[in-house]
TrEMBL record:
Residues 126-329 form the D-isomer specific 2-hydroxyacid dehydrogenase NAD-binding domain. It holds the Pfam family 2-Hacid_dh_C. Keywords: Oxidoreductase. This is D-isomer specific 2-hydroxyacid dehydrogenase. Belongs to the D-isomer specific 2-hydroxyacid dehydrogenase family. GO terms for cellular component: cytosol. Residues 71-360 form the D-isomer specific 2-hydroxyacid dehydrogenase catalytic domain. One of its GO terms (molecular function) is NAD binding. CDD domains: Mand_dh_like. The lineage of its organism: Eukaryota, Fungi, Dikarya, Ascomycota, Pezizomycotina.
Length: 367
């Protein structure tokens, strides 16, 4: 074996490359790829223990590889060989990876932040309009052989008492509250202002003055509702919930944000609010949401994400005011390709420069 061959880094590939084949081919020219043969979490952990992945420098993982490995929690991170120094995640949200467990083992983690912004904001826009206009009720009725609630004959005869979908609301002039103003939130703000003439308020722990300036330059009417000092965020949240006609959840899922929207928060909202969630299901308490929908406190919701994917709360499935999409926020050829290419650029930087293009914010000081 030549010294060059001996020094070729090894990559543990968790999942498959679906789109960015050219970029991946270049990686295979400088590294060896190892794939697990196991088909369950316990087998995968045993495969790690067998030494099959020893001397791998990094693990490249897709969103769907969680189906094999389960959560990358303390147990799984400890099972990885000590040679693993990087976990390259294909996706913006990395809540399935325990960052403290990685940090403790000196493993750096990257995600694909801005690559997802356009497609996810487009999905939010679709859900927003659909939920405001009650399109789901009409669309469901059609598939049940009804025209806006009645069968063909009842409609032709102009029969009274047909249960029509409720009249929708126009977005123009309404306030969209964005909880978690990152790349997706800003892209959504720009789109709703331009396409629908909505006003935007937002809440982050820290005000993003530069982001505000950029959005104002695009004609967006925008206000940060957080307050300074202790209690500022809680006060801001009350304002955001109380003043929004539509609330969009765009914050990452972590210990602080899990169920940030639950019974108490629903009670603070304007009655009849519309909620959109393209972030992660568990930022909202699903059982409490079902109750808030049933009571009419929440008029309608547009959801792309769920607490226990792929399982969906029966109360959501049964409610015609719930517009449901099965986690398709980034499900476009262009965006999935962009995400893979972004992740592969992290692979290359790790191998060639010993650093990451987009290390997760919690590990910025490890770069
Ligand atoms: O990038 C993400 O976090 C997604 O949810 C895409 O599936």
């Amino acid at each position: 074996m030549s010294s060059e061959e001996r020094q070729r880094p090894k990559i543990l590939l968790l999942g498959t490359i679906e789109h960015a084949h050219d970029a991946w081919k270049q990686v295979t020219e400088i590294a060896d790829i190892i794939q697990p043969t196991s088909s369950s979490r316990s087998d995968f952990i045993a495969e790690c223990a067998s030494g099959a992945f020893d001397s791998c420098l990094l693990a490249y993982r897709t969103f769907d590889s969680t189906l094999l490995t389960g959560l990358l929690n303390q147990e799984l991170i400890s099972a990885l060989p000590p040679s693993i120094k990087y976990i390259i995640h294909v996706g913006a949200g990395y809540d399935v990876i325990s960052i403290p467990a990685c940090t403790a083992r000196g493993i750096r983690v990257s995600n694909t932040p801005s690559a997802v912004d356009e497609a996810t904001a487009d999905c939010a826009l679709f859900l927003l309009l659909g939920a405001m206009r009650n399109f789901n009720a009409g669309m469901t009725a059609l598939r049940l052989g009804q025209w806006r609630g009645g069968d063909e004959e009842q409609v032709r005869n102009g029969e009274k008492g047909i249960k029509m979908p409720a009249l929708g609301r126009d977005p123009r002039g309404k306030t969209l509250g964005i909880l978690g103003m990152g790349g997706i939130g800003k892209t959504l703000a720009s789109k709703v202002a331009g396409a629908f003439g909505m006003k935007v308020t937002y809440l982050n722990r820290r005000r993003d003055e530069e982001g505000e300036r950029e959005l104002r330059d695009q004609g967006v009417e925008i206000e940060w509702v957080g307050g300074d000092g202790e209690g500022g965020f809680e006060e801001g949240l009350k304002r955001l919930l109380g003043e929004s006609d539509v609330l969009s959840l765009n914050l990452p899922l972590n210990a602080e944000t899990r169920h940030i929207i639950s019974t108490k928060e629903f009670a603070l909202m304007k009655r009849g609010i519309v909620i959109i969630n393209t972030a992660r299901g568990a930022v909202m308490d699903e059982a409490a949401l079902v109750e808030a929908l049933e009571s009419g406190q929440v008029h309608s919701v547009g959801l792309d994400v769920y607490e226990n994917e792929p399982e969906i709360h029966r109360g959501l499935l049964a409610n015609p005011n719930v517009m449901l999409v099965p986690h398709m926020g980034t499900w476009t050829v262009e965006t999935e390709t962009k995400m893979e290419e972004w992740a592969i650029s992290n692979v290359r930087m790790a191998i060639e420069e010993g650093k990451l293009r987009s290390i997760v914010p919690e590990q910025r000081d490890m770069q």
